[in-house]
Amino acid sequence: MSEEIQLTPRARRILEVASKLFYERGIHAVGVDTIAAESGVTKRTLYDRFGSKDNLVVAYLAARDRRWRELIEARLAEATDPVARVLVPFDVLPEWLEPSYRGCSFVNAFAELPEYDHPGRQLIVDEKTWLRDLFHRLSAEAGVAQPEALAVALTSLHEGAIVCYSIVGATDAAAQSRTAADTLLRTALLG
């Protein structure tokens, strides 16, 4: 995760507007003219604060990543049972999904940023890798014999719940995926 940068009030406004527009319309569909106009700033101010649209995209993704990780870490801090801790990312999913009607902002951005050297692409890979690694670590702490295999399965289930919620309209996707994750976890603990 990239370090949090200190934003001026104008930069914060630009980032808020850009984040909303990037999520709702797509990164390539939104130009800096639109972001500047809807932020109530000039393009020069936008470039002064962020340097480029690519840097603004990175700031957008970094802010989403930071909020997601903070939500997970806060809930993990409250959970003491090692088995229950493995399911925390599923427990917070309903809260996270409610405003996420267009699916995962990272998956959406990944589809729009095919260039391997785009500064946002590594951040996207890092976010998804972090979740898989978190499942791996928590599974190992819970005593799962093959935590890597379970981590991949849980990550796939977690990501699938986001797709089912946003694309298929399965409003119970988070609850159903948590139930399936619990079953997978308990089976892995037995084996």
Folded structure, characterized:
With 191 residues, this protein is mostly helical. The protein has a domain at 62-190: Tetracycline Repressor, domain 2 (Orthogonal Bundle), CATH 1.10.357. It has 11 helices and no strands. Residues 8-68 form the HTH tetR-type domain.
Features:
191 residues, mainly alpha, Tetracycline Repressor, domain 2, HTH_TetR, TetR/AcrR family transcriptional regulator, Tet_transcr_reg_TetR-rel_C_sf
> Terminal Cα separation, in Å?
34 Å
What is the CATH homology-level superfamily of the domain at 62-190? Tetracycline Repressor, domain 2
Mean pLDDT score: 94
| Category from helices, strands and their pairing | mainly alpha
CATH architecture of the domain at 62-190: Orthogonal Bundle
Query: What gyration radius follows from the Cα positions, in whole Å?
Result: 18 Å
Number-wise, the strands total: 0
By CATH reckoning, the class of the domain at 62-190 would read Mainly Alpha
Low-confidence stretches: none
Count of runs of 4 or more consecutive helical residues: 11
